[in-house]
Specification:
Helices cover about 25% and strands about 30% of the residues. It has about 375 residues and is of the alpha/beta class. The longest helix is centred in the first third of the chain and has 14 residues.
Length: about 375
């Protein structure tokens, strides 16, 4: 049976014909809000062959910056992802990421390039609360907060029929990974950035193929610089070498283990401690003691050590018994200099415009 090809898309529950979008806003009578206007304008540009697009980076690891990407880079990224997940004409995509950033924009491009049916909703914690109850999808992408909300709302039956789903934009913590295990739909954690037109590597989070390492997609050349940080080059970078601040362990078969960011290394008593390694252990330990919540690790000024490894935990203080359990687990799993010297509680972490944890802003607010 031949799949029905789309002639229109759904945006926040309203149908917009592609023929009308090409002439946007002249031939579009329906009122739109600011977000809808930006989505429709991008689609208009894509349909009319615009060759360059300017985006703003998310700002999760530094000051947000404008970056220009060529159409051929976005096309290459869309083609690679669609081939990997076997996405084709007539498939149905739920677009619920912010389309002003690369993750959401690339969901649009994949759908347009592969003639997929697009259902676009403004970003919400639970996107399924804003689509028809009977709507079915083959593919989608979420940030961890959304996926947690979707699972908490009991919507796993709406995820399982999909071909695959992506999760990215922030780390998938231990509690979320545990929740994903009963799902039958393959769930993939993404690695990428604006400069690489979204993801260039994937890590399976559930099922028998779950892995601790990322697999670099075909056609992307991965290497390391003198710091041990990942470098990337390919058609998605327009042939330019992208040098990241992500320290990795390169493995055989175009895979790598992500160890943390070079600029998040803490110098404690002359010993270099990767903050994100400690965060991973802290995150798992909090889940194990029944206190799963957001956390991060940073160096704080210390007269003796220079920088003291400090754990920042979101929410109210743990009980004395929980703190004792937590410290015992950390002592058993971390080296002497890696163990947090202090636990500090923050009522609520600061986030960037893209919804990612903003460490510098959180620390400045203390």
């Amino acid at each position: 049976m031949t799949a029905t090809l789309p002639t229109a898309l759904l945006l926040n529950g309203r149908e917009y014909a592609y023929a009308a979008i090409r002439e946007y806003p002249a031939h579009l009578n329906a009122p739109v809000n600011g977000y809808e206007a930006k989505v429709l304008d991008f689609i208009r540009q894509w349909l009319n062959g615009t060759q360059e697009f300017t985006l703003t980076t998310s700002g999760s690891t530094g000051t947000p910056a404008a970056i220009t990407l060529r159409r051929r880079q976005l096309e290459a990224s869309a083609r690679r992802t669609a081939d990997f997940f076997d996405l084709g004409p007539g498939d149905r995509a739920l677009v619920c990421l912010n389309c002003e950033y690369i993750g959401g924009m690339m969901m649009l491009v994949r759908g347009l390039e592969r003639n997929m049916h697009l259902t676009i909703v403004e970003p919400h914690a639970d996107p399924f609360a804003h689509v028809e109850a009977e709507a079915e999808f083959d593919f989608s992408a979420f940030v961890p907060l959304q996926l947690k909300a979707v699972l908490a709302a009991g919507r796993a039956p709406r995820l399982n029929p999909m071909k695959s789903l992506l999760v990215g934009g922030a780390p998938a913590d231990a509690a979320l990974q545990q929740e994903l295990q009963p799902l039958t739909v393959p769930v993939w954690l993404t690695y990428g950035m604006t400069e690489t037109c979204s993801h260039v590597a994937l890590r399976r989070l559930n099922g028998p193929q779950a892995s601790a390492s990322f697999r670099v997609l075909p056609g992307i050349a991965a290497g390391q610089d003198e710091r041990g940080c990942l470098t990337l080059r390919g058609d998605v970078t327009d042939g330019q070498l992208i040098v990241t601040n992500d320290v990795v362990r390169l493995l055989e078969g175009h895979t790598f283990e992500w160890l943390g960011r070079a600029d998040f290394v803490i110098n404690s008593g002359g010993v270099k401690v990767p903050a994100e390694k400690v965060e991973l252990v802290l995150d798992v330990a909090l889940t194990e003691i029944g206190a799963a919540r957001r956390c991060f690790v940073a160096g704080q000024p210390d007269a003796r050590l220079g920088q003291a490894v400090t754990a920042f935990i979101e929410g109210p203080p743990l009980s004395a018994a929980q703190e004792k359990q937590l410290q015992a687990l950390l002592a058993a799993r971390l080296g002497r200099y890696e163990q947090p010297k202090q636990l500090r509680y923050v009522p609520e972490f600061q986030t960037t415009a893209a919804g990612k944890l903003d460490r510098p802003a959180t620390l400045r607010g203390l």
